[in-house]
Protein 1
Amino acid sequence: MSVVGVTAERPYEVTIGRGVAFGLASAVDGCARVAIVHPRVLRKQAAALGASLDADVTLLEVPGGEKAKRTKVLDAAWRTLAEEGFTRSDAVVGLGGGATTDLAGFVAGTWLRGVTYVSVPTTLLAMVDAAVGGKTGINLPQGKNLVGAFWEPAAVYCDLDFLTTLPLDDLRGGLAEMIKHGFIADERTLELFEADPAALLDPASDALAEAVERSIVVKAGVVSGDLREATSVGSRVGRELLNYGHTLAHAIERREKYTWRHGYAVSVGVRYAALLSRNLGHADAAFVERHTAILGSVGLPLTYEPGAFGELRASMNLDKKTRGSALRFVLLDAVAAPFVEVGPDEGVLEATYAELAG
């Protein structure tokens, strides 16, 4: 077991290990009522966690995946808390993937203007991404996460035992974010993938456990320095650093109507960012090839549909990093050497996409 501290307005700890989910009891000690927000597939696990608590427990079942992040689900959650008499001294727990924890965190942050929230992520992607950083939110028909708030958890429990039942494609999706973390901040993570990529696809391996911890350390360090994502300038890159590869990734997700796994879109987006870094005269060819080799070694996608650039480019204007009409890309000179490119040449953007799709 290991513990990673996150410095924020309300500091908290991320506990990583096998069987650590039952540490939840200490995080909600003293709360008379606890709501556990969970998808149907985790009904048994939610009941087991609830039984371990010295509190009146409400099991709040929500749809799986992004369907949880809808206004009608949020409204139903609020109404349940009202009916059960939840007060400001009670707690909300998110048990599930990133969509579930995003919703649960937003419920906690908005109920009575904020109650205790604890995150228990059960997917690899949620552990290394959504569970750490305090971003919460729901979706609208016009786009993902358009309504949300920053609300830090009181604690996060990343129980690696949950990964043993995770489908392989879901595991791969989480690896994409971990590879991204390696390129933006941690050479050792990249070395783990290069040494034995098969081990990173094994939920029981020590290599995966180490890589998960390192990835969480990267994310915790970035968000501790820039909780609310101030605008980055040049090589002074704050929380925006975590968006490496996400400008194209988000456009792909919108084009696919969110049927692509987030990590798969991130994989393509990260490779595009590496190519763009090189084509703008920064990174070298070996740096690009390292992206391609590592992503490909664990079966992640490397290309996207030829001829789709026009639609994707229009969608990029909706990216959260865009300021006014200026498109912004987080790029790299090398591993852990980021910079922000504002308004890159449109011809280079299109040529880079043609190279990616080709």
Protein 2
Amino acid sequence: MADVPDPITLELFKNAIFSIADEMALTVFRTTYSGVLKDNMDYSTGFADANGKLAAQGLTLPGHLGSVPTAMDSIMRHFGDDMGPGDVFIMNDPFDGGMHLPDIFVIKPLYHEGERLAFACTVCHHIDVGGRVAGSNASDSTEIYAEGLRIAPMKLYEAGKINQTLMTIIEKNVRLPVQLFGDLRAQLAACHIGETQFADIVAKYGVQQTKLYLNEIIDYAERLTRAALAQLPDGEWSFEDWIDDDGVDYGQPIRLFVTIRKSGGHMVVDWTGTNPQVKGAINNTLSFTKAASYTGVRSVLPAGIPNNEGVFRAIEVICPPGTVGNGVLPAACAARGLTGFRMVDCMFGALAMMLPDRVKAAGDGGNTGISIGGYDAARKPFVYVDFTCGAWGARPFADGLDGNSHMFANMASHSIEVTEAEQPIQLLAYEFVADKAGAGKYRGGVPFKRDYRFLEQEGMLQVRADRRDHRPFGLYGGGPGGPSENYLNPDGENRLLPSKFTMTVKRGDIFRHVLAGAGGWGDPLERDPAAVLRDVRNELLSSHKAQVDYGVVIDKASWTVDADATTRLRAQIARSRGWTEVPTVQRHDPVRLARAAE
């Protein structure tokens, strides 16, 4: 066995291992049952070494960056000396390696001639695991025991034999056992694919080289991470943001506070000062807080660094137990996604002080969770779970993205046609909303709205949203994004609903959700008038807001910028701020301006 891995062979081996993790992810995508997996793609896959250290993560959710290491630590702690060929482990307990109850881990140790060499790991958000509300992710649950079936780390298979007692317990405690078991089989299929392809690698490289290279992949990632961190400024930066409330104690804002300390090739992300854990179900596990921290840091590091244990060695995450970022029993955590997304934005706020030319403003606040469940006339259950997001904060060099999933989620959107075919729901609207993007030299991403019409006799609607009172922040003069909104029957009573709620809906009721707009970057008076005109022509901005926010006057008869009126208006706005100078408006060719706006 070579003491020093050959760099070319190592690169080929690394790519092979990461391709296994990716192929596992594609296997879940191809074989899963529920929409939250096949459409939203709320799952992740990973590949760990014999000691449970993550060596590769598949192409899916950054939100799961910290999940597999934490889950593997739990499995190794409980079963390190009690596992063998044919064993498969399962767990979802947030207080023993998990994140929240819908996220079920399935982990399989991989053996060669009786020696454990690796683990194939999967985690999938299951559409329902029981509890008081269909979908098992209500934000207004107040303790873990109301949220669904809690599975401690245990063996789903032992020496190839299924744990039928556990399967029976699961079947009797969830609303849609056929879908859940189908999704579990997708996870098992992914682990099988990982096992088969890993066996080919072992056959090619041999046992000793395989073990050496798995370890070296992790060390290689650590070296790259520390080298990249060493190129960043040393220092300390803190940022504060607020969640509107927890859905139980309305009007009580929840503080998120992060301090980043960076020295050489090491970074500390410290959440000390974050709010104590709350009654509502938005409490994070430490693993999810780690994932948010890692995601923020990874966004400013080079793209080629492998996502594995080596990255995490260079980034220390601190969050005191008993806080909203590290809940302890009996903390409810089903809707913890909200807090995780907001922690990523909080990371961006701190990183923007460290690297002002590389970090974007706040996005829409992360995905809004919408669950609709109940029973049809024959008492057959239905559960619809949708996670929707779509507006990135403005960047120091470009507008925020429109209709793009939050960086922490990387989720796709449900197909409207499939939703209407499978669920008692009609989607009446799915469209961008004007005048909600945060103004700036570069504007924030434009949010969208969705209208859901309920078609069954009665059901339960559960919504987890935020960014109504504390809007997505802009950076360096950029304005905040517009607030999120929830309405019942917008064309009738148009009742304004809270950002987080659980309520009964009847046949024909229409629920409208409007995402928050993303924050802007830079002073709006510095925005190119041609870009303002383009947004007005695309109905992303009204001509009135073009004047109020940007000082740009649009001649809608000719679809051109009135340069003289714009110069005067911007000067007036600048004087109202006490400025002595104002960015000048270049006199552009009206034809060029019109073409730029098309």
Protein 3
Amino acid sequence: MEKEIEITGADMRLDGVVSAARGGKPVRLAHQVRENLSETRRYIEDNWLTDQAPPIYAFNTGVGGRKNIRITQQEMEAFQVNLMRAAAAGAGEPMPDEVVRAMMLLRVNAFATNHSGVRVEIVERLVDMLNKGITPVVSSKGSVGASGDLAPLALMSAAMVGAAESKVRFQGAVMAAPEAFRRAGMAETIDLKAKETAALINGATASLAYAVLAASDARRLLSNASISLCLSLEALRAEIACFEDRVMAARPHHGQRRVARSMQRILRDTRRCTEAARQVPPWNAAGARGAVDAVPPRIQDAYSLRCAPQVHGPVLDALDYIDRILTTEINSATDNPLIFRDGDRYSVISGGHFHGQYIAQAMDLLALVVTDLSAISDRRSERLVDPACSFGLPGGLAAVRPGVNPGLSGAQSTGTGLVLENIALCSPASVISLPAKGNTEDHISNSCFAARRTRTVLENAQAVIAVEMLLAAQALDIAEPSLAGFAVGTGTRAAWRALREEVPAALEGGRWVYADIERVRTLVVAGDIVDRVEAACGSLWGD
């Protein structure tokens, strides 16, 4: 049986969230967490849930602008239902299932910190839903990321309690939540008690779910970008002395040096990136091979080649920073109010941990660096199809019957279109604030949009990197008859072979280019090419 992820509220890692959200890895609540939650709730019920207790926000009062309205214990369960229904707004297409699953797990881990005061039965029900594959259908739009992601969390929670209107995905079909619970052998409904709705819907947890998956995807994207870069360097027979560690040490940014080292691993034993190889024309229309006139020394390459570590490096440094932010968020209590143990008693303090500004700013940064990563990749793709920049390769990489065969310029143009979209999307979302809820929420983070937008930026960038790989592999195929005596690097060859096992060369044209781009993009997303390269030359990031 696959080892479960133990939920403690203190040590959840990003990769654990990803493995449960995407891979369905089972989870379980730590025994001590279950005991702590039960003990805290017993105290609450014995001491606070009486009509004689002083006003305690959300336990016996309204919320937000109605915080001064006292709610009796007799009315409390009706208030939980009404509050959830009122918050269950939202619009737009459903969130991806993996994002909803991540959101559920993150809410469980937040409760496991034992600062929320919910019953253990609520937490266990979310755990059971994860393990049985019951995934709420949640609208993706409509959160401002201030009192948390109220709308998406309310839609998730409504499904969790078995609201008749709620839909879930279970066993490959969408159905009413109670029906799924019945089929799964669970109670069809569960009631919510004092404060539990507020605890469930507070926190920028939808934002965090998008963000954790995006950060994971961005690391894989950067590895693929190192590989696509090296494929282009070999295809253009670039000068690579500028990537030596002694050069990097002269301006020793951590990410820049690590990127250069990853390139050196991929390019190990290359003879293609040498002056001797640069003296051999890779192709000409008449079919002539071999050197004709001496080729002037390259001296130095264009920025998209020579400055790649200086552009890819900041992405790696940003990812390290973002991971620290997200790891802290994952293992935090984020609803309001929070409960703290003071000896044998507990106290309540209202705070603002539900505010999503940390996530919003981290996702703005991620969108920015991924956009730049896609932009420099697209500029390398442009050099590959432009005969004025490709050092002897045919225009559009049309090797046979140019004219009749338009080549792959259309693929490159697709990459440019995606970069243009990314440029528009990477405008900062975290500085956009409009007051909400009668000016109670007078500064919002916009974190859910920031994170959801960044997912789109990443999807675009994955296709841009796929285009560069497709073009660079085509360029290597065209040059191989002339340059077979000049071996490409160990990692480059592994990537080239992996690509050609899935997508044949398009030397004569006539291929359905969309399908080729999509197939390579699938390899990029899955990490298949990275796996093949690392099998050949070791971990790209092992220092």
